[in-house]
């Protein structure tokens, strides 16, 4: 009887959708399809975030995301079912099962800290896209709905990147005795500040991805003629 309950529990967990993981899968599939079947790079001063700075870096950005701790936790636990957060007989895990985490193909996840530098290097381009949306019409400063979306996109991507564990390692991972640092130490202040952001790294990871896709869809809607953009103010410069 108990064995049947355990098996039913295991099956229900397999079919029960994990909203974060499956939303990620759907977003990536739809985005990839739209990106390659219906490419769009710029429209009325709005630069598609998938093409900023260039579509050629997308594979590296994809690897940066997929090797992120926020995502790998989901696909290890909810797709490959191992390693679990803890051993629990009801989840049909076992200490005898061979560890399948950062081994074999998934050892590539250890390159995450190097993909981080690519993600960090392209951040200024997203802010430049925001600037371009403001001055794309020669002689005028224009502030529109799309400009807000581009700024929000840049800020969220920045928060996700600097809250990353790789950045945490970069600014504090080389310290042998963290508690020995003085309270006024610049390194300690920076590390403590990043620690606050790191608590929300998963949220930044998923929300920033949703916003990137939303901005892409917004630009496509404008190209399709949808009246979803309006100007807050326009100043001659």
Helices and strands, with pairings:
Layout: H1 2-15, H2 19-37, E1 42-43, E2 46-47, H3 58-66, H4 69-78, H5 112-121, H6 123-135, E3 140-144, H7 145-162, H8 165-172, H9 186-198, H10 201-223, E4 231-236
Antiparallel strand pairs: 1-2, 3-4
Give an overview of the whole structure.
The protein is mainly alpha-helical. The protein has one domain (2-163, 200-236). Helices cover 58% and strands 6% of the residues. The chain has ten helices and four strands; from the N terminus they run H-H-E-E-H-H-H-H-E-H-H-H-H-E. It has helices at 2-15, 19-37, 58-66, 69-78, 112-121, 123-135, 145-162, 165-172, 186-198, 201-223, and strands spanning 42-43, 46-47, 140-144, 231-236. A two-stranded antiparallel sheet has the order 1-2. A two-stranded antiparallel sheet has the order 3-4. The longest helix is centred in the C-terminal third of the chain and has 23 residues, at 201-223. It is globular. The protein starts with a helix and ends with a strand. Mean pLDDT is 79; it is low at 5-17.
